[in-house]
Design brief:
By secondary structure, the chain is an alpha+beta fold. It contains four helices and seven strands. The chain is globular. It starts with a strand and ends in a 17-residue tail after the last strand.
Length: 186
């Protein structure tokens, strides 16, 4: 399965396909920041708004196309503060319902982790709905559970649900220090 990183113009061009994936994911009940029903126009707008962050280097987005449509995506969000340039947040890992169970989620996760290492990132973190299917993926790929926050976010049907925080150390030479001008380059 091919997974490609999207630059800002490519993200804008793929916003319609990514919106289809986003609406499918929300319709299936995944708690990824949206309530159901998610209007397709709102999903398209949301993806287009991400293009500026991609252009600025604050967000990296990967897409997995198949048969003329995007069936999976994952992103890394990079903090802009000098004391946090060693870490990134894994966000919006999505796989279309029709493509689940084929290893695509694991592939997308590996691509994001490898890209983080290449960018000099040494710590990744994420949050996911507690007891969601995504938790199995993260645990099985070496992510460490940090804790649970009750009533953190509403599920697509509006019910407040807890979220579980995970982290993963990546790369080599993690010594716990960053110099005043050191830090990953993206």
């Amino acid at each position: 399965m091919t997974v490609r990183r999207l630059d800002a113009p490519q993200l804008r061009a793929a916003a319609d396909e990514l919106a289809d994936l986003l609406t499918d994911t929300v319709e299936d009940g995944a708690s990824i920041g949206f309530l159901a029903p998610l209007a397709r126009t709102a999903a398209v707008d949301w993806w287009r708004e991400r293009a500026d962050a991609v252009a600025a280097g604050h967000l990296a987005v990967w897409a997995a196309p198949r048969d003329g449509r995007i069936i999976g995506t994952v992103s890394l969000a990079f903090p802009g503060k000098p004391n946090s340039r060693h870490r990134a947040e894994l966000v919006k890992l999505m796989v279309h319902r029709e493509a689940r169970g084929e290893g695509l989620g694991r592939r997308l996760l590996t691509v994001a982790e490898d890209a983080a290492v290449a960018a000099g990132i040494t710590l990744l973190h994420l949050d996911t709905e507690t007891d969601s299917p995504a938790e199995h993926l993260y645990r099985s790929t070496g992510w460490t559970r940090a804790g649970v926050i009750p009533d953190y976010a509403a599920s697509p049907d509006g019910v407040l649900r807890p979220t579980t925080l995970y982290y993963k150390r990546v790369g080599t030479g993690v010594d716990g220090q960053l110099g005043a001008t050191d830090g990953p380059r993206r």
